[in-house]
Amino acid sequence: MSYLFDPSAIAFHAVELATAPAGSIPVSAERHAELMAAQAAGQRIVAGGGGVPTAVDPPPPPAARLQIAARRRIGELATQALAHFSDGVPSAELVYWLEKATAATAYAGGSPSTAERDLIEIEAAETGEDPAALAQTIVTREATLRAALPKITGVRRRHVAVAVTIQTLEDYTACLEAAELAFDAALSLAPEA
To answer: Which has fewest Cβ within 10 Å: 78, 103, 123, 188?
Structure first.
């Protein structure tokens, strides 16, 4: 099957199936297949010299899109690092950790209020853990998280500040590579969970 390429619409028409607009360029089945493969690989089809269909690399994304993507990825890296130290506790639940750590400290010390005792014992009943062991686990995790959080927050803030200056794809790649290395370093410096 052969094709006609309409340069004004950047569209192909099968010769056997349709009548193409005036000014269309004949394209062999082989060339059409090459162009479709290039498009599937991420290139764009444009009308080149004389209206001939040509595959070209797409233009780089605008700086604003790169900045947003970098900030999003840096946020994901920070969340992953945080999960390493919080034993996978969801971010929304971490807000509650200070209160829970205070209750666990009081419970482990033998002087919890009724509310603090209930908080630990209800969770222990749900998880099947011994309340004293759970309280100690919470205290240890909270201390680990407190040690790691400033590092994770600092790395995130430093690299977000770089991300908002990104102008090119090379800047984007360099920013994310540096962020990944910095988060890896923060993981290795902070105490293990």
So the answer is: 188
